[in-house]
Amino acid sequence: MELTKKLLEIQTILRTVESTDPGQDKKVSPLQLPSIVVIGSQSSGKSSVLEAIVGQEFLPKGTNMVTRRPIELTLVNTPDSDEEYGEFPQLGLDRIRDFKQIQRTLHDLNMSVPESECVSDKPVELRIYSPHVPDLRLVDLPGYIQVVNRKQPPVLRQKIRDLCEGYLKQPNIILAVCAADVDLANSEALKASRRNDPLGMRTIGVITKVDMAEPDMAVHMLTQNEYPLHLGYIGVVCKPVREKAGKSSHEIVLSEAQYFQRHAEFRQPEVQVGVGTLRRKLVRVLEDSMRRSMSTLVDAVRSELEETKYQIKVQYNDERVSPESYMAESLDTLKQRFKAFQQQFGKPQLRSEVQKWLESRVMDVCAELYWSDPEIKQLSNQWDEDDDAFWDHRLSQASALLTKSGVGRWTTQMVVNLLMDSVASMVDGEPFAHHPETRNAVLNFSHEILRSKYHSTVDQVENTIKPFKYEVEVEPHEWKKALRRSSSLIDNEMRLCRQSLAEIRSSTPKKQLQQAMQFVRSAEKSGVDPVGQASDNDAVAPADEFGYAQFSPRLVRRAQQALMIQDRLTILHMRRKALNSSACASMDNKRFCPEVFLDVVAEKLAYNAVLFINFELLHDFFFQFPRELDSNLYYGKTLEQTREFACQNPRVGKQLALLERRAKLELVMGRLRELVRQQTAAEEQATPLRSVRRGGPGFRPFNEF
C-alpha cells in the first residue's frame, strides 16, 4: 500500500509532463505507471462497481449515453483524516465535499460533448480523498453499445472501440465488467480484453448482478475455464438483494455480505466474491504491476530528463529565467527606453517642435493674406506712404490670425501626439510585440496621464500668450534673428515648389504640358473653365474655337498645378529679394516685411507656450509614467498572471516549459531513487543470505542510476 501511494504521487507529477516523443500515444506514455482500466457494455454495472469501491454515489446516471469521456479516477487513502472530498485539477475545483455536486459536474462535463460526436478522447481527471478508499488509479471508459439509435452517428460503435483500445495496451490492467444475466460468450468487455491481452495475464473479470442468476450458475461463471483469466473472476452484488424468507411469502433485504453468506455455494475456497475481495485484489495487482514497471519508468524518466537537459543546453545555453525575472526585465527595458527618450526630449527639443509648427502656420498665413493678393507685387517692389494704413491693417489681421487660432490647443495637442507616438514606438518592438494587452495598458495609462493635464495646460498657454493678441514688442536682436529664419523659410518653400514642379514635368510629356499650360492661360483670360473644355480622351483632340487643341481633364489639372506653382515661385522670388533689401533690415518697416514680423510673433508664442507645456504637461508625464508602469503592470500581479505574461512570448514560454519539465523530472527521479533504496533494503533484510540480484524485476540498485 505504501509503495502504491508513493507511486501514485509520482504519477500525479508525471501527468503534467508529456513525452518528448511526438509519435508516442499519450494514453500509454512511457512516463505513465499502470492504471486499472474499467470496460464493459452499457448497463453492465460498471458505474455501480466503481461506486462500490469508493463507497459514494458520484458517477452520472441516465438512460442515454452519459459517459462520453474517459474519467481518470485517482483514489487517495487519507488515514489521518475523516474528511471525504473530491477535486477536479483541470477545472481548479478543490475540496468538493458534496458528492452530488461531483456527480453534477461529471454530468455537465460529459454532456458538453455534442451528440453528433457522442464520445471524446479528452479525459476528465478526478481525485477522491477518503480514509475509506484504497490507493488506486482507475479509468472509467464509455460503455460498449450493441445498437446505435437514430440520434447517434453510425460510426459511434467504432469510435468507442477505438477509444477503449487506446487505454487497453500494456502495462494497464483491464477490469472487464460483465453482467451475470448475459452470456460471457457475448461479452464485449471479454472480447476487447482478449484482443489486447490474449493470455489473460493482466485482466480481472468482474461478474456483476450475481443475484440475478442461480447460485450454482453464478459459481460456474466465476470458476469456468472456457474464458480463462490468470487473475480470475470476482462476483459482486452492488445493490441490496430481496429474497424470500424460507417458505413464507415475506421478503427480506440482504446486503452483499449477507447474500453470499446465505448461500453455501459462494463459500467455496476457489470462489472469489464481494466488493471487499475486489478491492484487495485491485490493490495487490496494481502494486505488483507498478513494482514490475518501476525499472521501465526509471529508464523512461532518465531518458526524458537527459533529453530535456540537452534541449535547454542547445536552445538556451542553460540560461536561467523565471516568469518574475522575465516580467521585471521587460519592464526595465521599457523604463530604459523611456529614460533615454526623457534625456533626448527636453525643453530645447520641445521648443524646436513647437517652433516648427508655428513656422508652418506663419507660411500658411502669409500664403492666405499676402502671397495670394495681387497687390503683393507693389509691396515687394515699391511702396507709398499712402499705403501704410492698408498694410498696417493687413499686418494686424495676419498677427491676429496667428495668435488667435488656438495656439494653446494646437501646440498642446501636438506635444500630446508626439509623446503618445513616442510611447507607442517604445512598446511596438521586442518584447512587447508579444504582449498586446500590456502594450494597450501602457498606451491607456499614458493617455490618461496626458488627458488629466491637457485642459489645464491649454488654459495656461492661452493665458500666457493673451498679451500678444493685442500688442507685440520687437527688439532689434529679435528682428535680426527672425529675418534670417524667415529668409530660410522662404528658401525652403521655394525648394519645395521646385520639387513639385519637377515631379509634374517628369510625369508629363514636355510638349503636351506646355500646350496645356497655354490652353489654361487662354481659357482663364477668356473666363472659361479649362477643365470643362477638356476632352474625355487622353489623346490630343482637334483644335477648338480658341485655336488650341482640347486636352484630357487630368492633363489640364496638371497644367493648372504647374502654373500655380510657377506663380508661387515668382512671388517667393520677389519676397526673397525684399527680405534681402535694406528696407527689411529695420524693424520700423515691419508692415512691408510681414514674414519677418510674423516670425518674431511665432518665436514669442513658442517660447511662452513651451514654458507652460514643459511645466504643466511634460514634467508631470515624465514623473508619473514610471510609477504608473509599476503600479499597473508589476505590483499586485499573481504568480499565475506573471506566468501568463511570460508565456505570451513563444520563446520564453517554451523555455519556461522546459525548465519546469526538468524540475519535475528531477523531483520524480529523486523520489524513484529513494523508493529503489527502500526496496533494496527491504529485500536484503528479508533475505540476508541471498545477494541482491542485479536487474531483477521491480527494482534496480542505486549505483546504476
From TrEMBL:
GO biological process: what's one of them?
A: receptor internalization
Keyword Hydrolase set for record: yes
Reaction(s) catalysed by this chain, per the record, are:
GTP + H2O = GDP + phosphate + H(+)
In this protein, which residues make up the domain named GED?
A: 587-680
**InterPro entries per the UniProt record, alphabetical:** Dynamin, Dynamin_GTPase, Dynamin_GTPase_CS, Dynamin_N, Dynamin_stalk, G_DYNAMIN_dom, GED_dom, LIS_MGM1
What Gene Ontology cellular-component terms does the record carry? cytoplasm; microtubule; plasma membrane
Which GO terms label this protein's molecular function in UniProt?
GTP binding; GTPase activity; microtubule binding
Q: Which CDD domains match?
A: DLP_1 (cd08771)
> Which E.C. number(s) belong to this protein?
3.6.5.5
Record carries keyword Secreted: no
In the record, the note on similarity to other proteins reads: Belongs to the TRAFAC class dynamin-like GTPase superfamily. Dynamin/Fzo/YdjA family.
Q: What is this protein called?
A: dynamin GTPase
Organism annotation? Linderina pennispora
